[in-house]
Amino acid sequence: MRFEGIYTPVVTPYHADFSINRDGFAEAIEHLIATGVHGIIVAGTTGEYYAQTAEERVAMMGLAKELIKGRLPLIIGTGAIRTEDSIAFAEAAKAAGADALLVATPPYAYPTGREIALHALAVDRAANLPVMLYNYPGRMCVNMDEDTLDRLGRSPNFCAIKESSGDPNRLHMLARDYPHIQLSCGMDDQALEFFAWGARSWVCAGSNFAPEAHISLYKACALEDNFTKGRRIMSAMLPLMRVLEQGGKFVQCIKHGLTLRGIDAGPPRKPLQPLNKDDKRELAEVIRTMNASIEMIEKES
Question: Which of 6, 151, 286, 293 is deepest in the core (most CB within 10 A)?
Answer without folding.
Answer: 6
